[in-house]
Amino acid sequence: MLRIASIFVLVIIVAVGGGYLLAGFAAAPAIEVMRPRKAVGTDGTLEMVVHAEGRLSRFDAFLEQQGQRYRVFSLDDPSSGTKIQQEAENRMRVTAPLGKRAIPALRPGPARLTVTAARPVLYGLRTLETIASRDLELRFTPPRLSIASRHHFVNHGGAEMAVYRVSPSEVESAVQVGDTLYPGFPASGAGVTNADLALKVSFFALVYDQDLGTAIRLFARDEAGNTARANFDHRIFPKPMRRSRIEITDEFMRRTVPDIVEHSPELGSLPLSTDEELLQAFLRVNGELRRKNADKIASFAAETSPQIVWEGAFTQLSNSQVESTFADHRTYFYKGREIDQQVHLGFDLAVTANVPVHASNTGKVLYADYLGIYGNCAIIDHGMGVQTLYGHLASLDVKPGDRVTKGQTIGRSGMTGLAGGDHLHFTMLVNGRMVSPVEWWDPHWIEDRVMRKLREAGAQAAPASATAQAR
């Protein structure tokens, strides 16, 4: 009997030991620190995700600096401002304040972030733990900004340009209009001689649907998240927006809507058999697809060249008649009843059918294909966020990547997309936002709003460069 008992105890010991060892092969929690990557500023954020089977017995984060240890987050006692999201059964996301405002004792310089997550296994007899660490740089001094150009006159729905200085030169900087950022580019890319890296050029706009009192100022943000803003003198000029009435007919919808739907898979399969189905499809095209097209057009701003490649004023379609102007507020009617309202963000220019359409200035073709309501469409980049769009073309003679010169034929006018007749839909883009082309067609505006400021910036930069060389 004693022998049997001994064997039984031995089996239990072996089983428990084996289970303990096997438990060590189970998956420990996995930690992902999303941010910060390298630096922390005054108002930083710790964002991390933990993947774990079952419950966590520990999940915390500490920042260590100069022998001191500061708690950033603890699952047992979350601090104010912390957000915990259970995104899935085994996935938790945490965001917590991290910076000098959250931990006033922090000092500029290096620090180490340590995150620990643990979960119990084998009924709590063993714990599986994961530790993730990251070296960080703490910076609390915001960038410095100052305006370098003069006389900023902004037409509602139009564009302007500013020259400014930012330090350190490598931080993100822009002209901020409301919530929209118009990035700055090195002034050397605009041909400013002797320009140092701190001198930037930004084309910006007050778009048609922004209030005339919208704040316009310089903006900068460093890698640590420290931000700076600086006001600069500017004047806003209101511009009247036209209103028009557009009659939609069954014939127009039969001609345009099926072709647009066929070329726009993002709309899905739409029934088009009856007049009512055609009308509902038109409304989706005129509203939903119009917005999707605008988002796609805006996305090309990220592909702009950091150098100005255009020369002089942009050109209007030769001998063209203006059929519709920029920011025309259109009310659509069908069989006497109002069905929709939209804003037409471009100029409709007509000559005769199938006339050659030329590049309005030198640039690089970013897009040349069918694009929803614009039909066959080309988008050309001219550098520093300035781009042009040509819509409703019957044919395209260019492809993405082509370099084109001012006056080069890029296609022929037509009535593809949501066009009532043969014409060119033309608009200017500044960092993806549609603006009135009228200014860009005007050589006097180009000279006064752009070239004069660049020459003045070059004149200011030259003495500074000469002084630096003398030293």
Number of self-contained structural domains: 3
Mean pLDDT: 92
| Strand elements, count | 32
Q: What is the CATH architecture term of the largest domain? A: Distorted Sandwich
CATH superfamily of the largest domain: Glucose Permease (Domain IIA)
List the total number of helices. 5
Reported by name, the CATH topology of the largest domain is: Glucose Permease (Domain IIA)
Gap from first CA to last CA: 100 Å
Radius of gyration: 31 Å
Characterization of this structure:
The protein is an alpha+beta fold. It folds into 3 domains: 112 residues, Sandwich (Immunoglobulin-like), CATH 2.60.40.1930; 114 residues, Immunoglobulin-like (Sandwich); 193 residues, Glucose Permease (Domain IIA). It has 5 helices and 32 strands.
Describe the structure concisely for a colleague.
This protein is an alpha+beta fold and 471 residues long.
Chain-wise SSE layout:
Elements: H1 2-23, E1 30-35, E2 39-40, E3 44-51, E4 58-65, E5 68-74, E6 83-88, E7 91-98, E8 109-121, E9 126-138, E10 144-147, E11 153-155, E12 159-167, E13 172-177, E14 180-183, E15 185-186, E16 199-205, E17 216-221, E18 227-231, E19 235-237, E20 243-247, H2 250-262, H3 275-299, E21 321-324, E22 328-334, E23 337-344, E24 347-350, E25 356-358, E26 363-370, E27 376-383, E28 386-396, E29 403-404, E30 409-413, E31 424-430, E32 433-435, H4 438-441, H5 443-470
Helix pairs in contact: 2-3
